[in-house]
Specification:
single chain; 163 residues; mainly alpha; Rossmann fold; 2 domains; 3-stranded parallel beta sheet; 5 helices; 48% helix; 9% strand
Length: 163
Amino acid sequence: MAYIKLDSSKLSKFVHENELAEMQAMVNAADDQLRNGNGAGSEYRDWLELPTKYDQDEFARIQKAADKIRSDSKYLITIGIGGSYLGAQMAIDVLHNNFYTRNSDETQVIFAGNSLSSSYLSELLDLVGDDDFSINVISKSGTTTEPAIAFRVFKEKLMQKVW
């Protein structure tokens, strides 16, 4: 397994060299506990194996759904609040630089359901207009007010479009 290496050459303005040396023992102990599963929370280490061990059938289903959304939709309305949607937002942010401008033929991911702003939903409905869109609801309970309202609004719009 490859290890992460720290290039400390740029830290000298912020951290004294002796401080790094003093922290090394704690870093080694934390690394040992994480890798060997002998520390607090060791039952939650499954993420360490994600790059190599994952449900490949589920991943194939996700890829197929993503391909369909990209081919069928101008917009992907991702509905959620707090931690439910922040993973999706983070993934988009990490994959693009701060000044990314999407190509006009790419599906645009837009977030909704993270506030009770009626003007935001109204403006989003205007933006989507008659274009094709998909909905992705990310919710642990399905009962949080803000996502529930946004889902009902876009479900209704989708039903009007289809029927």
